[in-house]
């Protein structure tokens, strides 16, 4: 198992649960939230090192969750999932403190590479903050 | 009047963009589900006791060959295949099913990738209507259009070949009108070209002007009608795109020259 925990946030339930299962098969501890409120609850209860966050969700949107994560748990690294054919939102999210972004539909190997890089960054942020 | 027309186009585009976003989610979910099936198949192949599925498939092939030989040479000349045990039969069946599943899965994944690419392009196409005049990357605009028009050209058995330049060329223009004009040009080509022909597209930029070249090595016939179709959008080129068109009928070539930042 990898030594980091990932919170996957997307309102597409079948997408996010299947993705979590595939990540588990690859030794990545993954938990799931299907809306913004559940995501914020699990952020405190599960303390994931990485959050993979869908940009467009009903209710609290991805950018708002990102803002709150960066405000309240800045050591958590966020990877944004963007569904549009444009990279504009991805770039905006990085300006707001996201570690990286990835286009949907995802390539699981690319996502894992980004997660590993984010885990390293999370580790060094935590060390700096201690 | 123009505002109303833009409103209508923008509405269609907005709905299309929203639908492509949803389609993208559909494909993302199918891709993950297919990925999970693929992962599980790999695990099954790996963990099947003693890799029996593979061994029994080989045994099955050997049996088929023996049975074929016995048919060709007669029962006395070829050894008879020994009777299969139930376990062997089961293993062979599992192996065949796994192979079929793998093949079907590869079809699903291939078609998902096709759908994803098409959805991405359609989404980009819809966003070209966001503003009446916008800054666009010309190579991306033309490749988007040619992907979407592939089917139209295919019906006429015509290929479109776009040579994407190494450097990006930007211009500020009415992107929808530019695509409409290019569509009319391409349509003029494939309507008047022989089956199996090829339309070549390329772009260049210098001195604040972007140029789009279209030409075909096949003859366009009748030339007058092809020319008439090209000229039918000349007004749009001049008024809406502030551009000009140069035609070379002997080579079936046209060059659409557009100012890079001239539209108000």
Number of helices of chain A: 5
User: How would you describe the shape of chain B?
Assistant: elongated
CATH class of chain A: Alpha Beta
CATH topology of chain A: Rossmann fold
Question: What about the largest sheet of chain A?
Answer: 5 strands, parallel
Question: Order of helices and strands of chain A, N to C?
Answer: EHEHEHEHEH
Topology:
The complex is a heterodimer of chains A (130) and B (264).
Chain A: E1 5-9, H1 13-25, E2 29-33, H2 36-46, E3 50-54, H3 62-72, E4 77-82, H4 88-95, E5 100-103, H5 108-129
Parallel strand pairs in A: 1-2, 1-3, 3-4, 4-5
Chain B: H1 2-47, H2 52-73, H3 86-127, E1 134-137, H4 138-155, E2 159-163, E3 170-173, H5 175-191, E4 198-206, E5 209-216, H6 223-231, H7 234-239, E6 244-248, E7 253-259
Parallel strand pairs in B: 2-4
Antiparallel strand pairs in B: 1-3, 4-5, 5-7, 6-7
Helix pairs in contact in B: 1-3, 2-3, 3-4, 4-5, 5-6
Structure notes:
Chain A has 130 residues and is of the alpha/beta class. Chain A is built from five helices and five strands; from the N terminus they run βαβαβαβαβα. Chain A has one domain (5-123): Response regulator (Rossmann fold, 3-Layer(aba) Sandwich). Chain A has helices at 13-25, 36-46, 62-72, 88-95, 108-129, and strands spanning 5-9, 29-33, 50-54, 77-82, 100-103. In chain A, α3 links the parallel β3 and β4. Chain B is an alpha+beta fold and 264 residues long. In chain B, β4 (198-206) and β5 form a beta hairpin. The chains are: A alpha/beta (130), B alpha+beta (264). At the A-B interface, α1 of A face α1 and α3 of B.
